[in-house]
Amino acid sequence: MSKVKRVVLAGALSIAATLVGNPSRAATIQTFSFTQNYDFMNDSDIVLSGTFTGVVDELGYITKTNLTAFHADLYYFTRFRLAIYNLSWFQDPRSIFSFYALSSPLDNGSLDIFGILGAESICVGAAAAFSLCSDYVLPTAHGVAAGATGGSGAHYFVASEQAPVITLESTVVTGVPEPSTWAMMLLGFCGLGFLAYRRKNRPPLTAA
Prior knowledge:
Number of helices: 3
Strand order of the largest sheet: 3-6-7-8-9-10
Radius of gyration: 29 Å
Number of domains: 2
Shape: elongated
Largest sheet: 6 strands, antiparallel
Strand content: 35-45%
Number of strands: 11
Structural class: alpha+beta
Distance between the termini: 37 Å
């Protein structure tokens, strides 16, 4: 085997060792929208709608620890906003967020939310069924919202036996090197090896 081939082979083995020793970890970031209808006086006049974004973990879940964005509004007759929810509702250690993102079709019942801020709380999924927001709900409840409407002092309590409707809005995969990156590295190793070979085999200069 020629010296050039040995250098090229050494470069390729070096890249392979780098890939094995430092495997790239792809991160999948997904954004979902969701809507939860609440029953009020035998009607669905109160609606919770919003979006959440998070990094999907190894088990396929978005949890509170990798939730990067959350925003939802609770509307009455789509005009009067009862409450606004954001990431601050999950700073309380009692709060919960969990969603299984890899099922196809999406499992609407896997969204589990327990947000709490002061005297107000919001529950979706199992958190509602286990009465984390209120003791006055049936085990079949999928959503509960309880709290006060700002400075008016008027309290609200709504519950629902309907599962939320969840839609995947976007998926972004990060941290995956492009094949062209590794090709450029290999070419660089080959070029360095070739230059080293030519320099070594260049005839020495002699004095006139």
